[in-house]
Write a structure and sequence with these properties.
The structure is a homotetramer. Chain A is mainly alpha-helical. Chain A contains twelve helices and three strands, in the order βββαααααααααααα. Among the domains of chain A are: 13-46, no CATH class; 104-214, Orthogonal Bundle (Cytochrome p450-Terp, domain 2), CATH 1.10.230. In chain A, a hairpin with a 2-residue loop joins β1 and β2 (17-20). Chains in contact: A-B, A-C, A-D, B-C, B-D, C-D. Chains A and B meet through β1, β2, α1, α2 and α3 of A and β1, β2, α1, α2 and α3 of B.
Chain lengths: 263, 263, 263, 263
């Protein structure tokens, strides 16, 4: 078999040094770089500008915590079963970050990146948005990044993220198109369909030049932080056992009732 | 079944607000709090002091990247198989963060927290360290947080973390005991047994008041960042397929050779 | 909040009994039912017929082992890092069972189930297949379940699975359509595009009445068995550390060479 | 770096054949070997005897289903978030199979294997058991495989597994020691402390010659089957969303009450 050399610029170690992205971790980074700047460096291979730093930090912070999500509950239940493997409890929670919830940042970014790729700078974004909405609604598809079951008429996270992106000169055509999509979707449906947080993340990240395939990664980083937080609370004030026993008890009672003809 | 009420202070949502640890995410946190301060808030329920902020950021940054670790390779191989589930690729990598590698921050923190719990402030840490080392070496056990297969005579990350902890007034008896353990272990064994990075994390986190059961969580947060970085590089410059095919090819060739009597 | 009762027929326990699908585990199942019949019972809620039993067993066995796959390597690397969490090592390997590899059983089953739903029993399957192939090839999409990078001109697993399904009276229109898809795809492309193992699994499972959303589950069950097998070999003859060190060494050498201008 | 050759006997493929453990999958195994015999072959490298086949099947079947466990709930919640990644939902559930629940098969097997290693065939197992119990109870440790919170005075699965092991000539000193441990623990504590299902699995697997490090793997295989079953029911009769919304609603109500001074 012909071999292709394995190459990576992520990092390497010698007995007295750890190199990360070509920088000396201990001399150049540790104590000098924040976690979110480190995340940017890891993903893009370069340090962020001050504006990128500020906006990217917000993109990572926004999804850290959203209360007792299915992911948080799954992490707590897993920690109950395997407290010796905190990492596996976080992993279990992350596994649920798919198309139903926060994973939609990816779909939103793909939508606007695909739509704008190769188009001229003065393309009519409202017309583009109307076409996308018509095509999607025509086949009864939803528009990723648009609409929220709870946060209406607006998702309160979106204006903050968009304002930060504007303030730091990052908001561009991807953000503009995402806003146009919301307007077009609302016009076509007559319903409240705001840009939601994952739509805002996808659009701002796109204007920062990030590949759509990585946008779900921003949500994953933020939520990993939040899931460790849930384990911290679970250690202090456990609730996983109570949730489990309630579900077990209720399903067992209902099943027993049906078997004995009570139901 | 008697039910216990489910209580959580992590967060909750109303149509127009998202509350995180009792704060309004959009008004009080987003754009104002860094990711690592958010992590501290999630874990402890309060904002960090400036010194805690600085030191905690370093604790999270230090394990983000260590080159092509088994975890990074596992994440890349998983991404190859399921590129539509970036979150599961990160989860797969995190699952390997157990007792062999970075998970040892937990063991190191437990060791020093157990040893110091309830002891007077002027306890003789060197004597305590000698006793621990004698007991552990006596049953051929290793000392978590001490020694590194590559980084000798010192792990270069440790002095930076300890210096930051000193500078910001955080280093206390847990850090002192960890250092004493290294000295005692070196004296007893005649080998180079420096405090390694996970030992430093465990000791500093202990002096910050964090429960030992959470120390692995700091490593998990940092490494989640790094694993997203590895996926970013894998998208630009794939290597997972090459690693897989080499392993498959070599094992298949060797097996075929043995079956035909060549081996 | 209005609550909907939680109901489940999976199982429940009393102090002296464990009920599974309404049967007494210890009296009726244990020692009397095979693992694959138990899998069928769990998925469908009833015992299999003798023919279903035979065919379903083969569907589960066929994907157990395929050598050093990316999943097997990921499981071994994870076990290296967390040998105390065998379950997490299997979980890590399973996470890679997505759209690239064995997860395609799901796509294949969806394709034939969607195509046949509501059609008359004498529908022209060859015409249907030609239409599907034309539509897919027209948008440069592949056909799930068709083609294999290594196993050419046929995937040797497919005729065995199809023969078993015929022998036991299970093969029906879904199998017939899958075969027609292969013929149509080969005619349209001029290439060898056999029904592969996941295509065969998807088609046979569809003729057994299984929802397409569960077909990936059959692959998951089989592969979980295989991944435990890989851990067994890894315990006896470790290779994960060698794979890791080779990758780390080669990437570090290449990176160092580039930094010093050798590359 | 000096390389060690990578060797594996698990399997390999050529264009027209798939070899598994040196056998031709399509000619020798598929349609002829059951899933549990395949599991035995994968783990041990040889086909089971008829007695081993029967007993091993029971060891895998016994933990498939135990109702709405924390693992089953975690799998369902994960599937709710990422229905496109069934494999990740099973993986999330498996991650919880640690020291609290079924993972204890490993600890039980280690206990009896460590105790019996190198002892003469006529060693006094009752005395051995009394010593182990005294040592463990002395440091307030539990005895893995002994006692069950619900199944009292006996775990109904244990006598069935032990009877099967006796009937097929497999029960030996490991089973005898496990029984002796239960008697000794009951005598020392005055409480009902039966051998539980994981204790029985660990003891029987030990008498079959399996390494204690693999015993958790038997539970993992069985439970992977059960978790796919839970997803099948979740597709037909969803309950994950209801569980999530109840938890979210109750915690949010309680938090809001506390903030407004109602609590």
């Amino acid at each position: 078999m012909k071999q292709t050399p394995l190459r990576s610029g992520m990092g390497r170690s010698t007995p007295d040094r750890i190199l990360v992205q070509g920088r000396d971790l201990c001399r150049d980074l540790l104590g000098k770089i924040s976690l979110s700047d480190m995340a940017w460096l890891e993903i893009t291979g370069r340090e962020p500008t001050p504006g990128e730093s500020k906006v990217f930090d917000a993109l990572l912070v926004v999804l850290v915590e959203h209360g007792m999500t299915p992911m948080a509950i799954a992490t707590r239940l897993t920690y109950l079963g395997a407290p010796e493997s905190l990492q596996a409890a976080v992993a279990a929670g992350l596994c649920g970050m798919g198309t139903t919830f926060a994973g939609t940042a990816e779909g939103a970014a793909k939508l606007v990146q695909d739509a704008l790729r190769g188009t001229p700078g003065d393309a009519d974004l409202d017309a583009m948005a109307r076409d996308i909405v018509a095509e999607r609604f025509g086949r009864k598809a939803t528009i990723p990044g648009i609409g929220h079951p709870l946060h209406k008429p607006i998702d309160p996270r979106t204006p903050v993220l968009f304002a930060l992106a504007e303030e730091h000169g990052i908001a561009g055509r991807h953000v503009a198109l995402m806003r146009a999509l919301s307007r077009a979707a609302e016009a076509a449906s007559g319903k409240s369909l705001p840009v939601n947080a994952t739509g805002a993340i996808g659009a701002v990240a796109s204007d920062m030049g990030l590949d759509w395939r990585l946008c779900r990664g921003l949500a994953v980083i933020g939520r990993a932080v939040g899931l460790v937080g849930h384990i911290a609370e679970e250690i202090r004030h456990p609730m996983a056992r109570e949730i489990w026993l309630r579900v077990e008890d209720e399903t067992a009672s209902n099943a027993a009732g049906e078997e004995s003809g009570d139901a």
